[in-house]
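Below is how a single chain appears once it has passed through the pipeline. First comes the sequence as given, then the structure the pipeline wrote out for it. We keep one example in the README because the format questions we get most often are answered faster by looking than by reading.
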Amino acid sequence: MKKSIPALAAWAVCACASAQSNVSIFGTIDTYVGRAKSGSNSTMRVDSGGNAASRIGFRGKEDLGGGLSARFVLEAGLESDTGTGNPASTFAFTRQSYVGLVGPWGALDMGRMYTPMFQAVTRADAFGLNTVFSPMNLAAVVDAQPGMRSFVPRASNMLRYRTPVGTGLYTDLAYAPGEATTLSKKSGDLYSASVGWALNPLYVAYAFQRARSGSATAPVAEPTKSTYQSLSAAYNGGVWQVFATVARNGLNKTSVGDARIFSLGATWNVTTQSRLALEGAHRKVSGSDRSQLAWTLGYDYALSKRTALYGRWLHLDNRGGSSASLAQIPVDINSGDSASLIAVGMRHNF
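Resulting structure:
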């Protein structure tokens, strides 16, 4: 009986702590096998993140009383086909790493997290912008825009405020200082914001993001400004959903044309377990013959609430001698080669 007293005390402490706070492990393991083709080159691949990005993370929340709570998220990317971290084959919490407060007035977070514009566009994407097969990844392409910074979905050192969720009209604001030690004029900093309506069945949002060139390790004196804007919309019709986004990306140099991206997609819940999805996106740079057209056809079949099988067919058409790449398919520079990827995979959430 005496030996059981320490165990009972430990259980009591854990029970008391869990009553005040909640910490959980979450993640996704997603692996697919497919055939990628670019020009005359064709390769077989086993890769990660076809339906959802593979990851592992920890999240927690503590009730502070008076409607106020503290929260944190630590999330690391994984390459489920090799077991290494993502990016750069290192394991680190580079997907998300933030702490914040949530109250009746909204939420304030600090650290590394998704930008307001990324989240605004993702909600109007049939495949979710955070996946290999989304045609809207064309928004990060900088072909025919020398000096343009590729759109980034996350930012480090970021401060972010969002109005309370579930109220329909919302505002999302963020700023990430570049933390440059010399030269500067705000070298490397980033602004992002979105405002919209998010109440089922309608979603509409305008988003803005601006990033200056330079970094804390390589500051510049006269940073260029890469600006991104988007207008996104989605409608949930029950068994079907439609999505659309119009975006514009540009650099503050008259010699560099703006890129305009348009996407249109739809999903149809064939049964309670299966879903068809189709989306296309087009990117065109003003003053240039170079452009891209991408589309994806997808099918998902849910084996359970956590596990699904899926199929994807992605095709990218490079026009005017352009050489953009999607799904990490190598495309020869200025070749105008098209790229495609047909795959089947499995995704498990935990």
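DSSP finds two helices and 18 strands in the chain.

See the next section for the split statistics.
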